[in-house]
């Protein structure tokens, strides 16, 4: 776990300062009321039935709102033959929720959510604190869809959804978009581009074996010189409205895909010079009151009915699973010769310069406001 500790220190440069300041708290004491996690699938199903309920909290902008939670739980109960009740709360952004769950764990309090749905960057500072269950996921998947390749963090986190940064554009204003990020950074698009204030996508480009910091920082400076607006990931309606011609880059294709399906003048593509695959993960806090129900929820989400609803409601699924629509989208680019880099926990640990580059990129963008 040494690499996680080193990575945690790097990630902490701003986003998780509050979390790391809390790490000086006394050693956590697991809540006494927490039930035992079953040793096999049958025990876990029986344990979930005894628990009787599950607490779900996640960012509604990524995984969906209360109606989505209801759809998931209806399918969950049908899959496992259970009748669990549930409580859903729309949570804060991922790093803040991780901070909250860590504080509860450190204080020996029950976890406010039975699962944590989060990104690699937000999970990295939490893993060294041993606050999540180690779960033998592949042995529990009765449909054999989960392989060891899904598992990271020593069994503490599992890949559940795939996120691919994309360029979002308005085909009326940009009928023939260039295939690369570099192709967009020309005077022709002065005042017509937007970029996220957190430098999404450009963080990875700062890696030494990608573009490197010099080239990536130069690209961000060019965006500033082209008077690029700062737009949050997912706010693709500002592209559809014509406020901007293109968004370089959105964190994922989710929002743009939904707008396009509704007939809005918006489209998206993966730039060939910045092709990267990222993952969202789930983890189960050791202080959850309902660990068995939580394990079943993760297994459900990776099942065929779970992935179907996941994509139907969030336009996201796991590209590693058979029939994945995200996988089909990626294959179109692979067949065209585009090479993808998988950005997982191990990649971040091996590329501390990428997070250092992101900090510099964010500073450049912030100064342009």
How does this model look, in words?
With 369 residues, this protein is an alpha/beta fold. The chain has two domains: 2-163 and 278-328, 3-Layer(aba) Sandwich (D-Maltodextrin-Binding Protein, domain 2); 166-273, Periplasmic binding protein-like II (D-Maltodextrin-Binding Protein, domain 2, 3-Layer(aba) Sandwich), CATH 3.40.190. It is built from 18 helices and twelve strands. The protein has helices at 2-11, 17-21, 41-51, 60-63, 66-80, 94-106, 120-123, 137-140, 181-184, 202-205, 213-225, 237-240, 254-261, 291-301, 304-314, 325-335, 345-350, 352-367, and strands at residues 53-58, 85-90, 116-119, 151-152, 157-163, 166-169, 193-195, 229-230, 246-250, 267-269, 276-283, 341-343. The strands form three sheets. Strands 3, 4, 5, 11 and 12 form a five-stranded mixed beta sheet that branches. It has a five-stranded mixed beta sheet with strand order 8-7-9-6-10, covered by helices on one side. Strands 1-2 form a two-stranded parallel sheet. α3 crosses α14 (291-301), α5 runs antiparallel to α15 and α11 runs parallel beside α18. The protein is globular, with a radius of gyration of 21 Å. The model is unreliable at 2-32 (pLDDT under 50).
């Amino acid at each position: 776990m040494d690499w996680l500790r080193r990575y945690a220190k790097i990630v902490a440069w701003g986003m998780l300062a509050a979390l790391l300041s809390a790490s000086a708290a006394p050693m956590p004491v697991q809540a006494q009321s927490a039930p035992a996690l079953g040793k096999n699938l049958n025990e876990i199903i029986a344990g979930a039935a005894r628990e009787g309920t599950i607490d779900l909290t996640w960012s509604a902008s990524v995984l969906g709102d209360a109606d989505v939670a209801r759809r998931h739980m209806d399918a969950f109960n049908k899959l496992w033959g259970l009748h669990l009740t549930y409580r859903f709360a729309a949570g804060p952004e991922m790093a803040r929720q991780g901070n909250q769950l860590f504080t509860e764990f450190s204080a020996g309090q029950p976890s406010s959510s039975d699962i944590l749905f989060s990104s690699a960057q937000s999970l990295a500072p939490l893993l060294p604190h041993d606050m999540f269950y180690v779960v033998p996921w592949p042995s529990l998947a009765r449909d054999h869809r989960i392989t060891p390749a899904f598992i990271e963090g020593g069994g503490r986190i599992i890949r559940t959804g795939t996120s691919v940064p994309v360029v979002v554009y308005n085909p009326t204003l940009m009928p023939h978009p260039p295939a690369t990020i570099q192709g967009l950074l020309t005077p022709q698009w002065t005042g017509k581009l937007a970029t996220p204030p957190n430098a999404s996508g450009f963080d990875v480009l700062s890696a030494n074996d990608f573009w490197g910091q010099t080239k990536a920082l130069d690209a961000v400076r060019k965006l500033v010189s082209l008077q690029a607006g700062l737009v949050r990931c997912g706010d693709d309606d500002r592209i559809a409205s014509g406020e901007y011609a293109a968004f370089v880059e959105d964190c994922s294709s989710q929002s743009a895909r939904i707008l396009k399906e509704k007939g809005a003048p918006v489209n998206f593509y993966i730039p060939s010079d910045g092709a990267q695959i990222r993952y969202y993960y789930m983890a189960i806090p050791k202080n959850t009151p309902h660990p068995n129900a939580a394990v079943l929820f993760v297994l459900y989400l990776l099942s065929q009915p779970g992935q179907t609803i996941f994509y139907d409601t969030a336009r996201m699924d796991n590209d590693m699973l058979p029939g994945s629509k995200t996988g089909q989208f990626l294959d179109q680019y692979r067949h065209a010769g585009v090479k993808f880099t998988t950005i997982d926990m191990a990649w971040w640990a091996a590329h501390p310069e990428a997070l250092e580059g992101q900090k510099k990129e964010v500073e450049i963008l912030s100064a342009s406001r």
